[in-house]
Specification:
The complex is a heterodimer of chains A (about 350) and B (about 525). Helices cover about 75% and strands about 0% of the residues of chain A. Chain A has a two-stranded antiparallel sheet. In chain A, a hairpin with a 2-residue loop joins strand 1 and strand 2. The radius of gyration of chain A is 22 Å and the shape is globular. By secondary structure, chain B is an alpha/beta fold. Chain B has 4 domains: about 170 residues, P-loop containing nucleotide triphosphate hydrolases (Rossmann fold); about 50 residues, no CATH class; about 150 residues, Rossmann fold, CATH 3.40.50; about 70 residues, no CATH class. In chain B, about 35% of the residues lie in helices and about 25% in strands. In chain B, the strands form 5 sheets. In chain B, strands 6-9-10-3-11-12 form a 6-stranded mixed beta sheet, sandwiched between helices. In chain B, strand 7 and strand 8 form a beta hairpin. In chain B, helix 4 crosses helix 5 and helix 17 packs across helix 18. The radius of gyration of chain B is 25 Å and the shape is globular. Classes of the chains: A mainly alpha (about 350), B alpha/beta (about 525). Chains A and B meet through helix 1, helix 11 and helix 12 of A and helix 11, helix 12 and helix 15 of B.
Chain lengths: ~350, ~525
């Protein structure tokens, strides 16, 4: 990524305007005009690229000054990190199919569903905590696989297919639990995976970090990720370039199911129970983070670090406002406004995903 | 590029006397330049009431510009005068004023919305009959639509959805919609290649209808490529070349050869491929063909069979809708075929002939629609150029960069910046990069659908040279083009498609613009 960003930045200085090679201008004139315009453009692009990072630092400094005794404390930072693990993993579950040009609206339901599967299997007589985890992950893979078949093979609109799957799962969740929250018999290993402190930070955070790095590696470094962007960019172009469009989409949706299951695992470990009504509340913030993230780091493209930054911008804002005594309902209002303003400001001049 | 050599012509005295009620359109000294490049130079054209005039010209001759001027879409240059039914608009005509003056236009693809009925379309164009409380009266609407259709002698049910109409019926509906609120003796109907996409069988009844309407005084201007339509249905013709009138007169006063000669002019084009190459292509005819197509049948194609030899560039000529584009797509696996075989020499066997199989066999395809099918516009030039080989370059970023830079250098892509978003390059440079994408794969067979469509002359030369080099290196090239000039410059051999069937093969000296144009319009 750095090498690439470098060339891109260098590029802007040379060109200035991107069109009109038909009538070449005299070199002296164009050099003077474009280097200046190019420099302004460069600064603008640079600001766009790191806007979320700047905003995050600004918010941290702001709340540290406003609430030095409560905001900038180890406890607060630790709890903030832990609280954002599941939203981060779910945002990645939304991100991967979106890169490949599809929506997965079932991620929240799959999270709740897999947590219930884990709790049920753990409480049953089948075996150890690891069996429970295996079943939990397989449940996620199965849900993702179902989405994949509907979207990639049967060519149903991903919006509709995943909505249908999500709705059905929400019913199954109630069926499996009888509408009750499952407390009993959850294997301790699940809680350990989530909450064992390593170097003073909960295992959930480390696990999430590893997943973020893996998904980043997939999307930004592996041919598979590049192909996902190509499929998301224009399916027909990708198909004509011998890219296996169906396979790419299947992988994207199965991966989304797996990531949702990891979200379910972390939830189960952190909360210590499986609630049949858990899940849907993660969906909209995840989409918001993915879209807001596309304004930064790799502007105009859905990307991992932009998404993670967006989550933390929203989280820091939530924490700060809470400490300042703002009512709890104010935070989503501000998140929603931030999303719209962010896309409005950064989306201007960005091609691709953000403009309608 | 040189500066504009042609100054805008001097203002002709536009107050000519002929303004009797019998003249529907009188365009005098009509000129139009874009960025100092004249595309229309002092064109005079008259259509009288009751007259059907054909407007002919090859691509870029200025006929579309002419249509846009007289329908008010463009504003003409200083000194032009457009007179409609005796009323002079000078050079400034607006679409609304043109319509009010009686000008009605039917464009190439009648833009009907598939899910709406014929009656809905009538309502949208001419208002929905409705009561204050009752809303739209569907019955009255259907009645009005039936009447409008009846006026042109069509019995189409107003409730039919547009998507269920045949191509011919769509054109008829467009015709009735255009004329529904016009008094035939006070209207000028402009058909802007409205019949080009129709098979001749569907186009003829519409032209027949126009003849009947002309008897009632309707003035008609038909923009067309089909010479037969001109001699069979038109009274007069005007031929444009390079923005100027080169032929005008009675439709049957000129032979087809004369008309074609007028369209393409006497300028001989330079052969791009030299004799040696041709000779080698000939020599290699003793080997087996690289492409062997037999009994190929697909939607819009029937029983197409041909061979292409190594080192050969074969052109496919045909009017729009003749199946040439479809043939390119089928060859490249972009569209499935129903029966028949496509064999590529030394290709691995494929279960199904799709894009992947084609590329594995060494067949690379540049579709006509760059934006819809060729390019990832938001992604960088680099991402587009190496799109088919992401896997190959995974651990070879340096190789990737040098390959992309090679494409940029060899095809003179400007600006030479690999990481610039693709959409920010000009059309010509986009097309160079897309050709470069396939050249990186060292194609055995290159299938090109109108590779130089809408591309500036400089980029075109570079593209054509690169295409020739594929053949010079023993590959085969299959070129589809609607511009005979391009085929003449590139091809060793030209096959002609009409209504999905191979009807002619031009070789040797027969590969020239007259023969191609004639063979397509025969």
């Amino acid at each position: 990524m750095p090498a690439r960003a470098e060339t891109e930045k260098g590029a802007e200085g040379v060109t200035g305007n991107g069109s009109g090679d038909l009538t070449p201008m005299p070199a002296a004139v164009s050099l003077d005009a474009s280097s200046r315009a190019g420099r302004i453009d460069l600064v603008r692009r640079y600001l766009t690229r790191y806007s979320l990072l700047v905003l995050l630092v600004f918010l941290i400094v702001l709340y540290s000054i406003l609430k030095p005794s409560t905001f900038l404390t180890v406890t607060n930072l630790q709890s903030m990190l832990l609280q954002q693990t599941v939203p981060t993993v779910i945002a990645l579950a939304v991100l991967v199919p979106i890169v490949a040009g599809g929506f997965d609206l079932s991620v929240g339901y799959v999270l709740g569903f897999t947590a219930i599967v884990g709790a049920k299997v753990g409480a049953g007589a089948i075996g150890s905590g690891f069996t429970a985890i295996a079943f939990l992950l397989v449940a996620g893979l199965a849900a993702g696989g179902l989405n994949a078949i509907l979207v990639a093979k049967l060519r149903i609109s991903s919006f509709i297919a995943t909505l249908g799957v999500g709705l059905s799962i929400s019913g199954i969740m109630v069926g499996l639990t009888g509408g009750q929250v499952l407390y009993a018999g959850i294997p301790p290993v699940i809680a350990q995976i989530s909450l064992t402190p390593i170097l003073g930070i909960d295992a959930s955070v480390w696990l999430t970090l590893i997943i973020v790095l893996l998904v980043y590696y997939l999307l930004a470094r592996l041919p598979l990720g590049r192909k996902m962007y190509a499929v998301g960019g224009n399916e027909q172009v990708a198909r004509l370039a011998a890219i296996h469009v169906t396979r790419i989409k299947v992988i994207a949706f199965v991966l989304a199911g797996l990531l949702s299951a990891v979200g379910g695992l972390l939830t189960l470990g952190q909360v210590g129970s499986a609630d049949p009504s858990t899940g849907p509340e993660f969906l909209l913030p995840a989409f918001a983070a993915v879209f807001l993230g596309a304004t930064s780091i790799r502007p105009g493209f859905f990307n991992v670090w932009g998404t993670v930054l967006a989550i933390f911008v929203l989280a820091v804002n939530f924490s700060g406002l809470t400490l300042l005594g703002a009512p709890y309902w104010l935070s989503p209002v501000i998140d929603g406004i931030a999303l719209i303003i962010g896309v409005l400001v950064a989306g201007k001049g960005l091609r691709g995903v953000l403009s309608g | 590029m040189t500066d504009s050599v042609f100054a805008v012509p001097p203002v002709p005295p536009s107050s000519s006397a002929a303004q009797g009620s019998g003249v529907a359109l009188q365009a005098s000294g009509l000129s139009k330049s874009f960025a100092n490049t004249p595309v229309l130079r002092s064109v005079d054209l008259t259509v009288e009431c009751g007259e059907v005039r054909a407007l002919l010209g090859s691509n870029g001759s200025g006929k579309s510009t002419f249509v846009r001027l007289i329908t008010g879409i463009y504003e003409a240059d200083e000194g032009s005068d457009i007179r409609l039914f005796g009323h002079s608009f000078g050079r400034s005509l607006t679409p609304v004023a043109a319509r009010a003056a009686g000008v009605r236009t039917i464009h190439q693809e009648a833009p009907l919305v598939g899910q709406l009925s014929v009656a809905d379309h009538f309502g949208i164009s001419h208002g929905f009959p409705s009561g204050t409380l009752t809303g739209i009266s569907q019955r009255a609407l259907n009645e009005l639509t039936s009447q409008a259709l009846g006026r042109i002698g069509s019995g189409i049910d107003p409730r039919t959805l547009a998507r269920d109409l045949s191509a011919g019926d769509r054109a008829l509906v467009a015709l009735s919609l255009a004329l529904a609120d016009a008094d035939p003796s006070k209207a000028l109907l402009v058909l802007d290649e409205a019949t080009a996409l129709l098979p001749a069988n569907d186009a003829n009844p519409i032209l027949q209808k126009l003849r009947e309407l002309a008897r009632d005084g309707l003035a008609v201007l038909v923009v067309t490529h089909r010479l037969r339509e001109v001699t069979d249905y038109c009274d007069t013709l005007t031929v444009l070349r390079d923005g100027a009138v080169v032929l005008a007169g009675g439709a049957r006063d000129f032979s087809h050869d004369e008309i074609v000669g007028g369209m393409i002019g006497g300028t001989g084009s330079v052969q791009l491929r030299n004799r040696q190459t041709r000779a080698r292509a000939q020599r290699e005819q003793s080997a087996r063909p690289l492409v062997r197509v037999r009994d190929l049948t697909a939607q819009g194609l029937s029983d197409v069979a041909f061979d292409v030899w190594p080192g050969e560039i074969v052109g496919f000529a045909g009017l729009v809708g003749s199946g040439t584009s479809q043939l390119a797509r089928v060859l490249a696996g972009a569209t499935p075929h129903q029966s028949g075989t496509i064999e590529i020499a030394d290709a691995p066997p494929a279960k199904k002939w799709d894009s992947r199989a084609a590329i594995n066999a060494g067949v690379c395809f540049m579709p006509q629609d760059r934006h819809a099918e060729g390019a990832l516009l938001a992604m960088s030039l680099r991402d587009n150029v190496v799109l088919p080989c992401y896997g190959r370059y995974w651990r070879e970023r340096k190789l990737e960069t040098s390959d992309v830079e090679g494409v940029i250098r060899d095809l003179e892509v400007t600006p030479p910046i690999a990481d610039k978003p693709f959409a920010e390059f000009s059309g010509g440079n986009q097309q160079k990069a897309l050709l470069g994408k396939w050249l990186l794969l060292r194609p055995k067979v290159l299938v090109l659908d109108d590779p130089t469509y809408g591309i500036d002359p400089h980029a075109r030369e570079i593209l054509l040279k690169a295409i020739c080099s594929v053949a010079d290196n023993g590959g085969s090239v299959i070129v589809i083009s609607t511009e005979p000039e391009q085929l003449v410059r590139l091809c060793d051999r030209v096959l002609v498609l009409q209504a999905g069937e191979l009807t002619d093969e031009l070789t040797g000296t027969n590969v020239n613009e007259e023969e191609i144009t004639l063979a397509c319009s025969r």
